[in-house]
Design goal:
about 475 residues; 5-stranded antiparallel sheet; homodimer; Alpha-Beta Plaits; alpha+beta; globular; 7-stranded antiparallel sheet
């Protein structure tokens, strides 16, 4: 484990590398870098450094490496597992200044971007040219593509278009010692050596810092429509997931949302939401070439959901109305954070087990005296189970104990269903003690040897992923 | 490098592990294991062993590891880069007896298979349940899923559905020392530790032996149609690729085939092919929910191709006629092998550079007095460039020298266009000396450290991938 300190000599050399104004250690400026979106988790770095390009990232890492100072890379700080929290002090390396869309290559169907680009900005830049960056995390308006890559973010459209890993074809990597490794490129397929790109995606900043990415762009679907189906109960809504998936082509989004979860989003957006008394909803999007094809898809899915017990089916094809509904959905996480004390579990199970997961998660909450509010990407088996503090936890210590116990119960429940710990948020700090529940000692040992292949001294994002 | 020998004691212990009839060292039975489909490449192992399941694979690897004997894993032997050729002697470990489809999990959309299953058998088993295993190597009737995984095979439908890596969600891995590591599973997304599954796909048997795989199944497209567009020249046909891709949704196959290449396939199939005098053809498949949607897609693409200079456009929607055309396409490789002496380059470039690749490949052949016959998956920039011996090479040595020089020129041409060495066949033995043209020394060093993380003694498939 690195044990060096950020002394004046190092600060001076960092300032030489990136410019004085881009290195700082004063508490006020450093404070925003002490936490991400993980409730109840923070740690102070000794300093923050903001390089501007690959060469500066390399220089910063080399200086830290020589000084034995740990480095925590950071994107937008929208993570929910603490991967960007500098638990070991040292330097925070923010990639926020590497924020350019370098190229939209229409002919080859790729974007070349720096990691600090906001996901929605790339979506918009691609759409202007009739192209489509498919990964769509709920936090797209604020999260960075670099963070999406490092967590292998999923989001709303993964059910049809896959996760971030499926869209990353090239990366420029900077290793802990500062060496720069170009990997992949604009080739749709490439069997020429190991898949370094595929390995680094989802490694949570522990293997390499990404300074440039080549991301696939698809043809932009010309038409889109949304369907909202309220259900009397959460299990009934969960049962509708399979009905929707089996009715035909895969929808472009298939979200399961408890009515109370929508309530938090609606409160943030200061708006109302249809059927506020329904215990749960399915929110289903279809996309396609023509309005007729989309309408046919939604009609088919709607019929399947009514058969599966939906109270009603509302359809929206007008762009503004769709955006309003999605905005409420996207605001749920912000609402939970604003209005509750909670612990989130990013559960994932094989998709047909989502009903079982819903039942077991509720039982885990009840056992420990916590409320449970769930929502998420049910079409790919990924449900954000949120454990909410109630009046039964009199002290913060009681709350933490109950939350930790219930959290572990939910993870164990998902694993018992063939699931995993985290579908898209990553392990970070928050889940690392649970990693041995998912992976055998041999598998964890192998991962640690892979870590050492990239970063033998353990300088990069120490204290993350591994127990 | 491992230096142990297969002695009587080891053979006896192997026989105890897998049964006497499944270990052999006599020349006649061993001969089929000395080569794959790579012309002009063979090597003799000391013995061949055929375990039946994960436990036996583990036992075999542990015994070899303790004896210091190298192991070359082998699937169906349909590879084209020599990855299954035992260049270092020792043991060939055939996975042919692990040949069961263990489960078609309709609810979750996954198949669980052993590596020795023939790809087409899984496609058929899935289709019987209305499901679709999308990866479709031309050799699907004989290749193994395990080989597809280890080369990250692409095939005819990668342009729409991606390569094998995009469909592999779980693997049971056996490392060189015999340790068994389960990785991934039936979750559509999983950000819980490093992506071991994604790393092992495409590693050509150098990191681990795969004994079980969880493969994604999609809903089976209900309708399908094929379009053949002859062009007067190969560059004109290459130009049509971009026209087809830009005309709307991505087709499910987009093949560029020289007329002479079709000729080799037609000769194998003892059939005729339309427009035999056209210098090149595009073969385009569309799939979708309804015959009307597919017909509309093909009409749109056909119009774009006529605009791009196609001589004519023939459409086939009758299943039998489509299968006849595809059968000729799939037989090209067999025809080349049967009727020519050739060296194949599995070139890949960013897809908009395919016309440049065609031009540079022809120039490379001409420079060295070789014929060039190209065909392949132009929709994803992957073109199989075949360098054919002509009467100008009087001796085998002259032929080898010309082939090697032209081969390297084609690879350099692809790289100069932003491409890579191999799109889907892998590096194996054949391309390993060229790896440094693609990757920096730092990147190759990192890959070698990853190799050591899996296999510190270098026991598994030595002499492959690395220069």
């Amino acid at each position: 484990m690195p044990e060096g300190r950020v002394d004046h000599a190092l600060l001076r050399r960092l300032a030489e590398a990136v410019g004085t104004e881009h290195v700082f250690a004063d508490r006020e400026r450093v404070e925003p870098y002490t936490h991400d979106e993980t409730q109840g988790l923070s740690a102070w770095p000794e300093a923050v450094v903001l390089p501007a390009d690959t060469a500066e990232v390399s220089a910063v890492l080399r200086l830290a490496y020589e000084a034995g100072v740990p480095v925590t890379p950071r994107g937008a700080g929208t993570g929910k597992s603490g991967a960007a929290v500098p638990t070991h002090g040292g330097l925070v390396l923010s990639l926020a200044r590497l924020n350019r869309i370098l190229e939209i290559d229409r002919e080859n169907g790729f974007a070349v971007v720096e990691p600090g680009v906001i996901t929605e900005d790339l979506q918009n830049a691609a759409a202007e040219q009739g192209l489509f960056y498919a990964p769509d995390p709920a936090s797209r308006g604020s999260c960075h593509l670099g963070g999406n890559i490092q967590t292998n973010a999923g989001g709303l459209r993964a059910v049809k278009y896959g996760v971030t890993a499926d869209h990353v074809f090239g990366l420029t990597l900077v290793l802990a010692d500062g060496s720069v490794i170009p990997a992949g490129g604009k080739n749709r397929k490439d069997s020429s050596g190991y898949g370094l790109v595929r390995l680094v995606v989802g490694s949570e900043g522990t293997l390499a810092v990404v300074t440039r990415a080549v991301l696939r762009l698809l043809p932009l679907p010309k038409s889109r429509g949304l369907l909202l189906a309220p259900f009397a109960s959460l299990p009934a809504a969960a049962g509708g997931v399979e009905a929707a998936l089996c009715s035909g082509p895969t929808p472009s989004a298939l979200e399961l949302v408890e009515g109370r979860a929508f309530g938090f989003g609606a409160r943030i957006k200061e708006t109302a939401f249809p059927f506020p008394d329904a215990e749960a909803h399915l929110l289903v999007e279809a996309d396609g070439e023509t309005p007729e094809a989309v309408a046919a898809d939604l009609e088919r899915i709607g019929a399947a959901l009514l058969d599966a017990g939906a109270i009603d089916v509302l359809t929206a094809t007008e762009r503004r109305r769709m955006e309003e509904l999605w905005a409420v959905r996207r605001a749920i996480a912000e609402g939970l954070k604003a209005y509750t004390t909670y612990s989130g579990v990013d559960s994932v199970v094989p998709r047909a087990r989502i009903t079982d997961l819903v039942r077991l998660a509720r039982a885990a909450g009840a056992k420990h005296g916590l409320d449970v509010v769930s929502y998420g990407h049910a079409g790919d088996g990924n449900l954000h189970v949120n454990l909410l503090r109630t009046e039964r936890q009199k002290t913060d210590a009681e709350w933490r104990a109950a939350a930790d116990a219930a959290h572990e119960d939910v993870v164990r429940a998902a694993l018992s269903l063939g699931g995993s710990i985290s579908g898209e948020h990553g392990i970070g700090v928050k889940e690392r003690r649970l990693l041995p529940l998912r992976h055998t000692p041999e598998a964890i040992g192998l991962m640690q040897r892979i870590k050492a292949a990239f970063d033998p001294k353990g300088m990069l994002n120490p204290g993350k992923v591994f127990p």
